[in-house]
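Work Package 3 (structural annotation) set out to generate three-dimensional models for the target panel prioritized at the project kickoff. During this period the team completed the workflow that converts sequence records into discrete structure tokens, so that structures can be stored uniformly alongside our sequence database. As a representative example, we reproduce one entry of 113 residues exactly as it appears in the project archive.
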Amino acid sequence: MELSPPTLSSVVSDVIQSSDVRDFLVHPLFISPLGKHVKFDIPEIVMATNEEMKGEGVSVKMGRVFGDDLDKLVDGIVGVVREDTETMEEESRVGGFGAILEMMKVEEAKNQP
């Protein structure tokens, strides 16, 4: 993360040079909000970038982790899979996703009042 370009600092610099944006809110995307990157690495990078950019009137803060609410993340994934599989015309083109779609329909039916 800290070794792979672009860095957060360079991205913020590029944006402020080409626009009027001065407030940044970083929302990391991790399945588990309990890992080292989410707890330590990303907050450190965000705080360092915020300190570095303060003199330019820029604010860089960390928002909630996408994945912090696993149910919402799963619902989003299921929604994308459902949309993709429902738009396919032939079951043979759906492949393994056809079985997943059927399982989702069964689970959904179980949860209906």
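The two ends are 45 Å apart (CA to CA).
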